[in-house]
Amino acid sequence: MKQILIPFISFFACALAHSQTPCENGFAGQYPCNNYDLMSHIDLNELSANAGNDSWGWTDPQNGKEYALMGLSNGTAFIDISDPINPNYLGKLPTHTQASSWRDIKVYNNYAFIVSEASEHGMQVFDLTKLRNVTNMPTTFSSDAHYDGFGNAHNIVINNDKPYAYAVGTSTFGGGAHIVDISNPLSPSFAGSYSASFYTHDAQVVTYNGPDSEYVGKEIFLGSNEDEIVFVDVSIPTNPVLISTISYSNIGYTHQGWLTEDHRFFFLGDELDEINFGFNTKTVVFDLEDLDNPSIHQEYFGPTSAIDHNGYIHEGIFYLSNYSAGLRMVDISNVTSQSISEVGYFDTYPENDNGSFDGAWNNYPYFESGNIIISDINRGFFLVRKSGTLSSSSFDKNSFSVYPNPAKSFVQIKDSSQSIKIIELFNLLGQKVLTKEFDNESEIKINIESFKSGVYLLKINNSLTRKFVIK
């Protein structure tokens, strides 16, 4: 269905590629969607890169501004998304050595820590507070520190409770955890390791606060190790202790997983099982009530055959970057009773939902604003947001008329039964951008030429609201 519709809407999509586009009738421009709107998009050409990969986010504690950090084939892009409808590409930190399809980023105490599969790349350290005063955009940034205790690395993991970074898939310790002390971010140092002859592709580290009282308060490393999950107590970096391991059926490549917020369940994605065994996107859910004896709780199958990649959990929603099927939002609030269901999606790769390595690589759903980063291999940076998050009471269509809608220069508001006293216009961040009061008028005309294109909420007489689009 997507391939049939694309030719008819591609022109419309190009015109809106960088602007706010609501999800209406299953599409936001050319992008299939359900329950999530496109806030903005920056393509790879503007980012001067051949491909996108990982992403993360940073909120400036000084002023609350939000920034997207996006991995690219040739470096790391920094994007100011404090106005999500009009993001500012601030610049790029170039790769430390050469280009690579793999780059990974995490944040600790206002510093970004970046690794790559590029040979001898090591770990770049970047002071994010430098983003506060960028004048010439896009600028070329430089690292503030560098750690060369390893060469290439596939991934980096940080638990924000503790000053340690865990580089995994490195050329050291058989690809197991290479632990770096980042208590002084500008002088990172070796802190420990754990290998036990296995390669870790990705991992999560948490200060455990789950149902197994034996491990509460300890630092637990959950490693996705190609053909199994490992659980390691890394409370003492110089002396990690293996707790347990678990595998599952139909293994393709044990790729990445994430804990529920109560630390009871672990959601795992296998990157190759869809291709190898021919079923739809599968997520394996493990029950960690007893960390010494984890068990399989259930398997969840998505609606397409696309390959799952990176998934994160926030406030009862599993945000799964699903390659060619885009970002899928899955309600897991009833996972205990094995009741999981998809509640939305935004598909950044409209060509198909096949088992290919195209489309959404990663996402970041942790901004307080509700805006969500999607980093796409083929199309660059996307920012999306749940539809209707700022909607209010229903509008009585028999009382007021708003036309034209969409509008470009002027909008007329007419009331057939009551007088108009006040008009307010809000953007989708909830910010009021216009207020006009009237002396009991029945019909008014407002000039909107000074406003940026996008979706707004028009509020009439402090109670009735209608969605309004400015072209």
From TrEMBL:
InterPro entries: Choice_anch_B, LVIVD, Secre_tail. The keyword Zinc-finger does not apply. This is Choice-of-anchor B family protein. Residues 402-470 form the Secretion system C-terminal sorting domain. Residues 1-19 form the signal peptide. Keywords: Signal. It comes from Psychroflexus salinarum. NCBIfam families: choice_anch_B, Por_Secre_tail. It comes from the Bacteria.
